[in-house]
Protein 1
Amino acid sequence: MLKVYEVEERERWNAGLRGLPGAHILQTWEWGEFKRATGGWQPRRLAFERGGRIVAQASLAAKTLGPLKVMVVSKGPALYYADPDLVGAVLDELEQRAKRFGVVWLKIDPDVVAATGLPSSENDRASDMGQRLMSKLQRRGWRFSGSQVQFRNTLCIDLRRCEDELLAAMSGNTRRKVRVATKKDVMIRPATMDDLPLLYQLYQTTGRRDGFLIRPLQYYQHAWRKFMEAGLAHALIAEYQGVAIAHVILFHFGQKCWYFYGASSNVERGRMPNYALQWEAMKWAKAQGYATYDLWGAPDKFEESDSLWGVYQFKRGFRGQLVRHVGAWDFASSPTLYYTYQQLVPRLLKLM
């Protein structure tokens, strides 16, 4: 029999999550508190216990938007998805809660692989577990979400190989650029809390250059400082002659290390600091015992018109495996209200 209860202690929550398949940084206690502080989301953390052992966890974040309520389980729930009875029981609980709280939609985004390799290529391999999960969700009335908040696709590097094998697996061009940085006196050092304003300054520069949204410093203070203090984030800075020219910020938990943030200045880019940083990040993650380095983000459509195509070209040179996840799925407690929400909200956002 499955016992369901809420967990209210950080250490207990993270310890249970760490032992589950697909444990993701976005399901940690810290991420729930980050969303509370920066977006007004209210976390509720459910543990599912069977035979005295935690077999699933789901950190739900709820928010009120005017007269409406929504709920999301970012990159979760975490559980053994090969167990169909367990999957069904967890979905039952989530659906009942959505109905009880009267949310317009409940969104889940399990960190479950649907397929690997480029679609329709000779390396395209479907995952039986992911395909079964998507079929189950469809049968239960869940809808593939039109709002995919997190990246569905990414590139993952297996860190269980030795450093020489990791370097040899890179494309020749990428390997050459990694070495260029060393030859051109690029130095890599760990960042400290005192470097947070510098990290933000570089991020602002990158945002202006590449045209993406930059939030206020306070937002990144929460996103970076709190996770660094909790031992769940690590930043590296590339310098030339003592001047910072690029950085990466890594988040890590369970068996994975994620490349979440990266930035560079507008000068000395020919020294290839971004390539050197990625290589140092992989070596650091491997030394910490992580099995996978997740480059966090690949195109939805693998064509040049996709906004991530340029970033993808950079990342693919490190020769990670292309992983395509099942993506986000919505459960609507009221199909009519859900349809109305889906029609109106995009228009309101466009007007805003």
Protein 2
Amino acid sequence: MSIAIAIVGLALLIVLHEGGHFLVARLCGMRVERFSIGFGKPLLSFKRGETIYQLCPIPLGGFVQITGLNPHEEFDHDDPYVYPNRPKWMRLAVLVAGPMANYLTASLVALGIFLGYGKHTNTATVDELVAGSPAEQAGLHAGDILLQANGTPIAANAPIAAIRESKGVPVAIKIRRGANVQTLTIAPKKDPTSGDFLIGIRIGQLREPVPLLSALREAVVLPAVASGEMLKGLYEMIAGKQKASLSGPVGIAREMARAADRGALDFLQLIMLLSVYLGMFNLLPLPALDGGRALFLGISALRSKDVNAKTEATVHMVGLVLLLGVFVLVTFKDIKDIIVRWVN
């Protein structure tokens, strides 16, 4: 069930992205030939007006076929409703509509989380315990609020230094459970994979209610803030300041399934972040992406003349091949990780 929920959630993000392109293209009077969910030979299709709507078996994406959008395709150059013959501002609106649809989705999900579950504070809680771990054996429970470790306050977004530096020496963990405050002594164990000393818990953050106006304000700015953090992380990966960690649809679906197993809140938070990531990534000025097409449109506007169609088509094709290469590599990595975990 969690896998099915993950696939549906991922497909929904793609549909909303392509739906943004589709809706704005129609509002701008452009001819849309096809709206596809998935790739491959259609399992189901129907035609309404000039557009064919189809559902395909490979749920790894989707596309909206707007007449004239691809530089290499043939079309009637006298047709006022094809993409190249519409005003430049309309073309730009169509290009950014997909990412903006993802940002809007992220804001709406964030608003639902703020109003339904509240906002994260800096107070750390125990979200989950590993069975048989030192924390479980010492009597720590899920939902306990973590206050101090060896007298040092515990923050939700920071590692617990006293545990990592313990070398296995018992650590005094002060907690609040309901109205009671108590101290548990826990001896960390060395993780054979990472070499870190751990007690076997997943740390979460205490949430507090958010007023409606504050929730609206924070939900609106969340996509921009999250995009900035993602771009920073991407830069640090490229610069070698942090370990590169990329996932394709297989890895993303696996993480979504895990989030669904943990509960609705974790699943919604992941949907929110994935929606921001999908919008941010497509706005990057890279060939074959919405941002790359917008870059060519901007160059055309500055030159007061469209870039040569064959040149643009070649650049986008090269970009698409490179992106597909990365896609194949990360998908292979995701499948390999799943097999290794299953074997182990």
Protein 3
Amino acid sequence: MTQSAESHGSVGLSYDGAVATLTLQRPGVYNAIDLEMAKALRAAVVAVAGDDATSVLVIRGAGRGFCAGGDVAHFAERLDDVETAVEHFLVEFHAFLSVLHDMPKVVITSVHGAAAGAGFSLAAAGDLCIASDDARFVAAYAKLGVSPDCGGSAGVVRAVGVRAAMEMFLLDDETSAAEACRKGLVSRVVPLAQLQEATSAVARRIAAFPIEASGATKRLLLQSPTTSLETQLACEMRALVRCMKTPQYREAAARFLPARGAA
């Protein structure tokens, strides 16, 4: 199995077979995202998207927590021209999110400790979210008197629905991993000591699935809420036909045929 690693500044990127792992690496500030990290995230995910051998991306945080959100100090130092500061930051982060969404590779966020603000939004940006039992989710935007950013108004709504998202963003209460799982924000909860292995196990199971099939599944499910039934069914049919033309399907289907020469 091929293993390799590379660095994109405050973001680490490693490969283990068909699974890539992106690690936020500013543990001294709980992986708060500044402009340089936003640029690094964009560069790292572009590298993953362009790697045909990768079918799953795991996003995790180094140190004691997943991500404390956007680096407030970065913006506090630029209040005289906050519009420019926000635009520069979000142009990079939005490009990162767009690649996450558009690429066929399945994205798993692996969350421990705090996921707040932009970290809360990032946790919801995954196609799946696996959390340790100590994980805590808090929107944190209301405390600052601002509206959601970094894709939170899309990812959180997709995961939990509009009403639950309203509660999480406007009341700003901390949500435990267990409650986040009940709401649908988290896919499964595991003990902290088992988080890395549990995430790896899920990633390996999905990576064993042909990327044509996992990628088509991701596209179909993401587009479903805004697609008419007629269009969705047509897309399902085209995707199914593409998958059935792959060597993996032919091999699997052959097992259902009677053995040649059998009595």
